[in-house]
Write a structure and sequence with these properties.
There is one protein chain. By secondary structure, the protein is an alpha/beta fold. It has a single domain (2-219), classed as 3-Layer(aba) Sandwich (Rossmann fold). It has 9 helices and 8 strands. It has helices at 13-24, 31-44, 52-60, 89-98, 102-119, 129-133, 147-160, 167-183, 205-219; strands spanning 2-6, 27-30, 64-69, 72-77, 80-81, 122-125, 139-144, 196-199. The strands form 2 sheets. The protein has a 5-stranded parallel sheet, with helices on both faces.
Length: 220
């Protein structure tokens, strides 16, 4: 069974997907982490992402692995654990930028489908999971919430992880990514026609989880 969880920035896709996967005993796959891993490498290698030849060469030389064990996801970039490093704000910004590039998206979609074949029962979260990556998924969830709620949630999450970030700069980057996700030429952010829209703005975390679990069990 495949459950996809999509939605805009800061809506809580990762937290929700992790918990749903944990309770169902499914494998959790974070597609955003894969983009972040590649983004991190472009920053470390000082790659001009507008130079497609250099970017394609970098992709060919990159190995991204997701290791799911003991209820947690480890992200390996060329064999190195970068699970924490990819959560930095500059990496998030770069990930949003490279996600607009067709060659990058083609590479990621192919890799994500391979993970789906490998693990069978999965909860996969991130952009285009229900529209492009797994259009035949048994359950597609699209989380949403007002933008001001999502900004505060994401900012609080980063602070709790120990990141020291400027609030005004954070909001500016957040809104730029919001616009980029919705207006990009390749697969702009949108819910699949057969997805279930869940507005989390006035819902507790537990209420969101329970709603998705009920929907999942109905489809099993």
């Amino acid at each position: 069974m495949i459950i996809t969880i999509d939605g805009p920035l800061g809506v809580g896709k990762s937290s929700v997907a992790k918990e749903v996967a944990k309770r169902l005993g499914f494998t959790y796959i974070d597609t955003g982490a894969m983009y972040r891993a590649l983004a991190l490498k472009t920053l470390k290698k000082n790659i001009d992402i507008n130079n497609l030849e250099n970017l394609k060469k970098l992709i060919e030389e990159t190995d991204i692995q997701l290791i799911y064990e003991n209820g947690s996801l480890k992200v390996l970039l060329d064999g190195e654990d970068v699970s924490e490093e990819i959560r930095k704000e500059e990496v998030s910004k770069r990930a949003s930028e490279i996600a607009t590039i067709k060659e990058v998206r083609d590479y990621m979609v192919n890799l994500q489908r391979k993970f789906g074949e490998k693990y069978k029962n999965i909860v996969i979260e991130g952009r285009d999971t229900g529209t492009v990556i797994f259009p035949d998924a048994e359950l597609k969830i699209f989380l949403t919430a007002p933008v001001e709620v999502r900004i505060e949630r994401r900012y609080k999450q980063l602070l709790e992880k120990g990141f020291n970030i400027d609030y005004e700069k954070f909001v500016k980057n957040f809104m730029e990514r919001e616009v980029r996700d919705k207006t990009r030429e390749i697969n702009p952010l949108r819910p699949a026609e057969d997805s279930v829209i869940v507005d989390t703005g006035n819902m507790s975390f537990e209420e969101v989880i329970n709603k998705i679990l009920i929907l999942a069990k109905e489809r099993m």
